[in-house]
Specification:
mainly alpha, 2 domains, disordered N terminus, about 80% helix, two-stranded antiparallel sheet
Length: about 425
């Protein structure tokens, strides 16, 4: 027998010798390579298509003698793919291709949830669900805003015609105004995420009590007078209702834990940080566009670049004077004054609103949602008492345990986490 024998007292204990799992190491290395390839592809393609030719930039920067070979990159990619196919199975190739193509979905709906599950943190889980729902609800606004800004930015960086530059500057100013107004409204507008929780639980309860209610000929009959098929239906329906009750109380408890964690403050800070970055970048674009229209609008010792205006925009938001390109005429000075005023709005108003009014509103809304979800659970408990003639939810659970219901272990687990 392969193994290592050690003596403890009068007993021989056989400890198997475990060989290194080389296959597992190779698989882990392969998964790591696949992860890097997926991230690289999803960084490379958007930059290549929408920002600039990253291939040409890198080759010119590090291998200028090989620039002519860029015209052959299609054949290089074919060669790399052929080499990869030569050493892998067809199924492996298919899995890798699907993984790379759908990597954003894999990352959002598998990687992050897996990480949260490993952390065993329901608070993080609730925060992540809130973030996904919020992203979905604001996707149209975010996509349109990002599209307008990127088109305007590309126009300012690449065009020299005043009509296009003025149009882009105006578009960014309008977009910036809308962003501040939208952030201000967020302070006082009810959260779509929490409203969705209430609607979801209420909708499920209404559908469940309508679709899985007992037949009229079963309601008034004692359990011992039902046949086997009726008992199965009775048990199946009851366990769904009890499970819904447990899920309601469990969700209410976890939402209350999320409220006590203070993660909503982190969310508000991220919103504020996003607006600050967008403001700095917007005024950098506006000033650079004005500079391209008329260079006499600014005084400078060294010809400024886009980064110069970004740096000056950052200083303006901190109430510091410009360092590289000083506003020299009413238009550029007015833009400088507008940014200084918006920095006051950010620091003096939005910070206090987001961290005080918004936090208090968030707490009130979450309390209301928790109360509504608990109300749905209690409403289901009343329905069970009337429909099944059972006194308490604990009696219903005991009956399901006696009948060996399929979901009884899940119900027990949820019940333990509710207490």
């Amino acid at each position: 027998m392969d193994g290592q024998i050690t003596v403890q007292g009068n007993e021989n204990v056989i400890t198997p010798i475990t060989a290194p799992q080389k296959g597992g190491t190779f698989r882990s290395f392969g998964k790591l390579i696949r992860e890097f390839i997926s991230i690289g592809v999803w960084l490379y393609v958007p930059i290549k298509l929408f920002v600039f030719d990253i291939d040409l930039f890198l080759v010119k920067r590090f291998l200028p003698d090989y620039v002519p070979l860029l015209s052959l990159k299609f054949f290089v990619w074919i060669g790399v793919m052929a080499l990869f196919l030569s050493f892998t199975k067809n199924m492996t190739v298919l899995i890798w291709i699907l993984y790379v193509v759908f990597y954003p979905a894999v990352f959002l709906f598998w990687r992050i949830p897996s990480f949260i599950i490993r952390q065993n943190s329901w608070v993080l889980g609730v925060a992540y669900i809130n973030a996904l729902v919020s992203f979905y609800k604001s996707f149209k606004y975010a996509f349109v805003s990002a599209s307008v800004f990127l088109i305007s930015l590309a126009t300012i960086l690449c065009s020299s015609k005043p009509i296009f530059l003025w149009s882009s500057i105006l578009a960014i100013l309008v977009l910036l105004t809308i962003s501040f107004f939208h952030t201000f409204l967020l302070v006082f507008k009810p959260s779509n995420v929490y409203q969705l929780y209430t609607k979801a639980f209420s909708g499920v309860r209404k559908i469940g009590t309508t679709s899985f209610a007992l037949d009229e000929n079963m309601k008034n009959l004692p359990l011992d007078r039902l046949d086997q098929q009726q008992i199965q239906k009775w048990t199946a329906n009851l366990q769904l209702f009890v499970l819904f009750n447990r899920v309601c109380l469990f969700a209410a408890k976890k939402l209350r834990d999320y409220q006590n964690s203070g993660l909503n403050i982190v969310s508000n800070l991220l919103v504020l940080f996003q607006l600050i970055v967008f403001t700095i970048l917007s005024f950098a674009c506006i000033n650079f566009g004005l500079f391209e229209i008329n260079r006499e609008l600014f005084n400078f010792k060294i010809a400024p670049t886009f980064f110069t205006f970004f740096y000056d925009s950052f200083n303006s938001l901190l109430f510091r004077s410009a360092q590289g390109a000083l506003p020299a005429m009413p238009i550029s000075q007015a833009i400088w004054m507008v940014e200084s005023f918006l920095s006051f709005v950010l620091g003096g108003i939005l910070v206090s609103l987001l961290l005080s009014v918004k936090s208090q509103r968030h707490s009130d809304e979450l309390n209301k949602v928790v109360g509504e979800i608990e109300k749905e659970g209690k409403s289901m408990e009343s329905f069970i008492r009337e429909e099944y003639k059972i006194n308490t939810i604990d009696d219903a659970i005991a009956e399901l345990q006696r009948l060996k219901a399929n979901f009884i272990n899940i119900i027990f687990t949820l019940s333990k986490n509710i207490d």
